[in-house]
Amino acid sequence: MTVRELETLAYGYGLLEGPRVDAAGNLYFSDVPNGGVYRLAPDGEVTVAVPKRRGVGGIALHAEGGLVIGGRNICHVVNGETRVLFESPARGFNDLITDSAGRVICGTLAADPFSSSESDSGQDRPTGGAYRINLDGSVDELYGGIALTNGIAFSPDGSQMYHADTGNHCLVTHDVIADGDGAAGFTNRRNLGQADDFNPDGLAVDEAGVIWVADYMAGCVKALDPVSGAIVDRIEVPSKFVTSLCFGGADRRDLYIVTADNTDDTERKGTVFRTRADVPGVVVAEARV
Fold first, then answer.
1. 64-78, 141-155, 173-187, 199-213: range with lowest mean pLDDT
2. DSSP of the chain, one letter per residue?
3. In this structure, which topology does domain 7-276 adopt according to CATH?
4. Average pLDDT in the 71-78 region?
5. To the nearest whole number, what is the mean pLDDT of the chain?
6. Which residue has the higher pLDDT, 178 or 234?
7. How many percent of the chain have pLDDT more than 70?
8. Where are the domains of the chain?
9. What is this structure's pTM?
10. CA-CA distance, 287 to 66, in Å (whole number)?
11. What residues contact residue 171 under an 8 Å CB cut-off, 6+ apart?
């Protein structure tokens, strides 16, 4: 385990999610229970990017400006105007990612993610799945069977897609069937890193292919080998509820980590941290839907 120094950038929020950094170095993140998507500028100023909206678990930058965000639906918000991209009969959406063509892949919630009832957890939880919003606005259902959907990411070469299933304590991994424009289909499903004490939340991938995962309730970010699922590195975070992370910065080696609490100072609540990684993160394409 490499000991890394964490810098505190912002705090005082609820459960933070969906971090994403733009080319100007602005970090966007959401406050799930309290509402709002925020913009943290490089000079430390925090402003509201999208007011009030609750339940935003995933954020993508859009090529035409603004943000694609989850919640009760998937929408594109730019200059205060909202364009709905996808409505689903599911309870809502959590995290999302773009493929190399700029299509949006999102995970659906079929149950209350904060429910602790026995019937609403693990294999007994009503399952969600993954959908893709295409460039022409059409939507494809990709697969189901995800007990509690969280982070989604691609390997550096786009040949693998990882989907955090917190309810089943693993990353669901698929081989990607490419069509020249990114992901066309998915095959060879398997579980990576499965363990009873593993609660994967948000995730990001570096250029070496290592999968960095926020482990909710474990107080850390874990780095997983993409083949074996073995833990190859670990970043301790002063939080019991580490929720998500992303790479950013000019060299993509700034690693932003967001939480739902702060164990060093409980009054700080949900906190944004930053540290440095040895390997740059994979470039995440802008949405073009």
1. 173-187
2. ----PPEEEEEEESSEEEEEE-TT-PEEEEETTT--EEEE-TTS-EEEEE-S------EEEBTTSSEEE-SSSEEEEETTEEEEEE--SSSEEEEEEE-TTS-EEEEEE-S-TT---GGGSGGGSPPEEEEEE-TTS-EEEEEEEESSEEEEEE-TTSSEEEEEEGGGTEEEEEEEEE-SSSEEEEEEEEEES--TT--EEEEEEBTT-PEEEEETTTTEEEEE-TTT--EEEEEE-S-S-EEEEEEESTTS-EEEEEES--SS-GGGBEEEEEEE-SSPBPPPPPB--
3. Neuraminidase (2.120.10)
4. 97
5. 93
6. 234
7. 93
8. 7-276
9. 0.94
10. 10
11. 162, 163, 164, 165, 191, 192, 193, 200, 203, 211, 213, 224, 229
Question: What is the separation of C-alpha 152 from the centre of its chain, rounded to a whole number of angstroms?
Answer: 6
Q: 123 pLDDT band (50/70/90 cuts)?
A: low
Higher pLDDT, 79 or 110: 79
CA distance 89 to 87: 7
